[in-house]
Design goal:
Blueprint (H helix, E strand, L loop, with lengths): L2 H4 L5 H5 L3 H11 L5 E5 L5 H8 L3 E6 L2 H13 L5 E4 L12 E7 L8 H10 L1 E12 L8 H6 L17 H4 L8 E13 L2 H11 L1 H9 L2 H18 E4 L2 E14 L3
Parallel strand pairs: 1-2, 1-4, 2-3, 4-5
Antiparallel strand pairs: 5-8, 6-8, 7-8
Length: 258
Amino acid sequence: MKAGEIWQLGDYSTVGARWARAGDRLVADTVAPGDRVLDVACGPGGMAVTAARHGASVTAVDVSPTLLDVARAHAARHDVGVTWLEHDMTAMPFRDASFDVVLSAFGAMFAPDPVAMGGELCRLCAPGGTVAVLAWTPDSVFGRFGPMAGSRMPPGGDRPAIEEWGRPESVRRFLPASWTVETRELGVDVRWPTRAQATAELTGLVPGWVLVKAALAPEDWRDLVAEVDALMAEQGTEDADGYTVRAGYLETRASPPA
């Protein structure tokens, strides 16, 4: 199944909105009015719209037409202009050094070839600019999902090295050696009314989980959902105000040589 078809599954716009504050923080720390900003794998468009509201000139790319429709509606509600493009993020149709800021929040990590993806992000960054990428850390609640699901999947097929984008030593290998790379570990509090709703949304709406469900026997799927729920219970807290889990992620910033 092609990437564009995968991201038509489930309802990522609903569940992804729950950790959108991480992208908002990245924009606040990185984007200045007048910057030419590229949002790579923009999904439902939250970060792109936030950057546009900061006064940037924003272009946003995603492979999913469904998510781009959600993004356009989001921009219209906030009365901001963003250039939306449906395209493969690994080979984008822009000239070298076209953007002052190149961002990707939990998107570039899905690229099948991380070194090629890193090169593409950096190719599009202008001198003096910044490439900034967010990815779940391997030991975070969401970072543990990939190996958990992969251990139950039938053999065969390639899975993106998602967790590697959350390791400082790995992500440096994905970027040109001449670039200055800085990383820091951060976290975002993700909230649901109940833990049961959190487990149901994550396993029912995230496209990757929809694929996993289709590949497993019903009893294996039930066991996996129970394992996810146990992890959510271990990592989060639930009280009268709802359920909250702290999701750790790595922020990588790279700048070209002077």
